[in-house]
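User: We ran a pulldown and think these components assemble together. Before we commit to crystallization trials, I'd like a predicted model of the whole complex to look at. Sequences follow.
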Amino acid sequence: ETGVTQTPRHLVMGMTNKKSLKCEQHLGHNAMYWYKQSAKKPLELMFVYNFKEQTENNSVPSRFSPECPNSSHLFLHLHTLQPEDSALYLCASSQGQGTDTQYFGPGTRLTVL
Amino acid sequence: GESVGLHLPTLSVQEGDNSIINCAYSNSASDYFIWYKQESGKGPQFIIDIRSNMDKRQGQRVTVLLNKTVKHLSLQIAATQPGDSAVYFCAEHIYNFNKFYFGSGTKLNVKP
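Assistant: Here's a predicted model for the assembly, 225 residues in total across the polymer chains.
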């Protein structure tokens, strides 16, 4: 266990649904990240939060909406997704932004029908 | 985007042999590198890291080599075990952007 948990582990949703992914870290870190992992592709950074403030939005479509209520919790709200959004969504945390090692959660396997 | 790639998408080795997984990077401003292991159904797991002021770093059964001249990174696993079967990918931190960029990964199959 890395100290980063994600729920749910699997999610199937229709294009008109609204759902949320949750991430929690128990490491006392200050930075949290959302990544998208598609088959045979490198990890794609989506959002970065540092001390609850969003510091990076990597040109992510507005149908993905992050929320970081505190340094330990991170959410990704999903609405009107497309089938091409099906992927593994990974949350990570690090002590700070920059070169601090990122520790990943197990991911949420999302399927959009 | 930045190019972080792996030379071999799949590597099959016999149990007990040594494994070498390679990674090429393109940015001379990269100052820090990490190797991750990702088993099926799990998130990436930190294995070993190396800073750009080093050429070699050893862990338990793993060694990372950095050749800055040709912008090449390798992960060596000694006495490969079935539990080493996973996808391995490298990540480079580019100083100018203060971000990590990840490779697409190499799948390591360990044959008993």
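The mean pLDDT of chain B is 90. That may be worth checking against your pulldown data before setting up trials.

User: Thanks, that helps.
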